[in-house]
Amino acid sequence: MVRDNIIRIRKELPPEVKLVAVSKFHPCEQIMEAYDAGQRVFGENRPQEFAAKVPLLPEDIEWHFIGHLQTNKLRLVLPYASMVESIDSCHLLDAVENWGELNDRTTDVLLELHLGAEETKGGFTEAEIEGILAREYPHVRFRGLMGMATNTDDDSVVEADFARIAAFKQRIDDRFRLPGFTELSIGMSHDWHLALRHGATIVRIGTSIFGPRNY
Known about the structure:
Elements: H1 2-12, E1 18-22, H2 28-36, E2 41-44, H3 47-53, E3 62-65, H4 74-77, E4 83-87, H5 90-103, E5 107-112, H6 126-133, E6 140-146, H7 155-176, E7 183-185, H8 192-196, E8 202-205, H9 207-210
Parallel strand pairs: 1-2, 1-8, 2-3, 3-4, 4-5, 5-6, 6-7
């Protein structure tokens, strides 16, 4: 099933869009099914689970951390993550910078823009992101933006959220012209087709690949 799902989704994705297979809560056996189907990029959102899986799986996997990251869990994530997609506070960003200075490492990150109506969602305002990008972080490489649309069945609301983040990224590109600031991570299992219309370069798909989560 996992293999068939990977093949089907990859046929529908433009070749320039990166598929992050969201493997959180799923066992290594299922991850290997996706790996054997050619998938190499996987997303996790729980530090302990992430750190436990990494040594059990092939070394050429590109790991993305996609969930809320507490600063006291950086040691479980930053040594292994190719990208942290979910930088959602200045406190976390400063901690990642400090970790990088201490460990002589530069971390690729996406800044999470608060989208949608839910107050429980994390992320920055547009003004906060612009302020961050005007400062220097020698051990952080800003690669783009991440966002999650409103949790609704109304496609027009979802598309409005995606259009907003795409327009904001264009404003950033015009103002800052940052080298490597190319990624727009929007779209999950239920809305990635809509995200493609608004310039998604990364989609994060879990349920449509692995099925329901194994809690």
